[in-house]
Amino acid sequence: MSNVITSLWGRETRVIFRRELKSYFLSPIAYVFGGLFLTVLLFLSAKTSLVHGAPATMQPFFLYLPWLFLIFLPGLTMRLWAEERKLGTIELLLTFPVRTSQVVLGKFGAVVAYLGFILLLTLGLPLTLGAYGSIDWPPVLGQYVASLMFAGSFVAVGMFWSSMTRDQIVALLASIVSLSVLFLLGNPSVIEFFGSNLPLWCAGLLNGISPYKYFLSIARGVFDTRDFIYFTCFCGFFLYANVLVLKARRESKG
Q1: What is the Cα 136 distance to its own chain's centre?
Q2: C-alpha span between 149 and 140 (Å, rounded)
Q3: Percent of the chain scoring above 90 in pLDDT
Q4: Sign (positive or negative) of CA dihedral 160, 163, 169, 174
Q5: Is the dihedral of CA 190, 149, 205, 216 positive or negative?
Q6: For the chain, what is the HEC assignment?
Q7: Which residues are CB-contacts of 104 (< 8 A; sequence separation ≥ 6)?
Q8: pTM over 0.85
Q9: Is the pLDDT score of 230 beyond 50?
Q10: Which of 76, 167, 206, 243 has the fewest CB atoms below 10 angstroms from its CB?
């Protein structure tokens, strides 16, 4: 297992990772995305949490965060492959002496690292709440970990759709629709509705494929290894599908 990880995250993957991550901090799009995302998230959270007499809690923050991921992340991922295909640079990228899986993993890691940096900038909110009240830090840090894994699952889906088309709008719409379905399937009220109209095993199966269900589990402070295994398998499935799409394209050009 360690040999597989070392092989995937080798020097070539790190080169792709650094190239992609550097591009985020050189692109105005990344700053616009980050600034707008942070403004909306912190405004909504502070409006609820930083009120006189309100309890010092991060619950509003982590309540709004998944919804904002659903709105913003498709716009971030739609360009990852679609723009490369439109500009013709994907052919050049795929001719590099690296495996397709390393290119995909490098791009995925760069997006997740960028989102991790964005989340890091929000730590001012719990620090402010802690100055005026009592913050239970272990659950809060667990919720941050859950948020990053949840974001990673959305990025993996968005990357897959971006690899399927050269049109960014098509990639955006496909991501929004598929992520919305996955998100809603993890909502307890939606599953309760399905439970009254479908067999229990079917409702449970639909609920079990939603990343939001496992985000809620970790966000409540319940650290179950099955949740971490789920996110690993979920991201791995869509990243592998991404690799298959790019390999098919590389072979068709070859």
Answers
A1: 25
A2: 14
A3: 32
A4: negative
A5: negative
A6: CHHHHHHHCCHHHHHHHHHHHHHHHHCHHHHHHHHHHHHHHHHHHHHHHCCCCCCCCCHHHHHHHHHHHHHHHHHHHCHHHHHHHHHCHHHHHHCCCCCHHHHHHHHHHHHHHHHHHHHHHHHHHHHHHHHHCCCCHHHHHHHHHHHHHHHHHHHHHHHHHHHHCCCHHHHHHHHHHHHHHHHHHCCHHHHHHHHCCCCHHHHHHHHHCCHHHHHHHHHCCCCCHHHHHHHHHHHHHHHHHHHHHHHHHHHHHC
A7: 159, 239, 242, 243, 246
A8: yes
A9: yes
A10: 167
Place of tokens 């309540």: 63
DSSP designation for 167: -
Residue 221: half-sphere exposure toward Cβ, Cα within 13 Å: 7
Q: 210, 182 in Cβ contact below 8 A?
A: yes
- The 10s digit of each residue's pLDDT in 132-145 is 777 788 888 888 99
In the chain, what are the domain boundaries? 2-253
Contact of 216 with 59, CB cutoff 8 Å? no
Q: Mean pLDDT, the chain, as a whole number?
A: 83
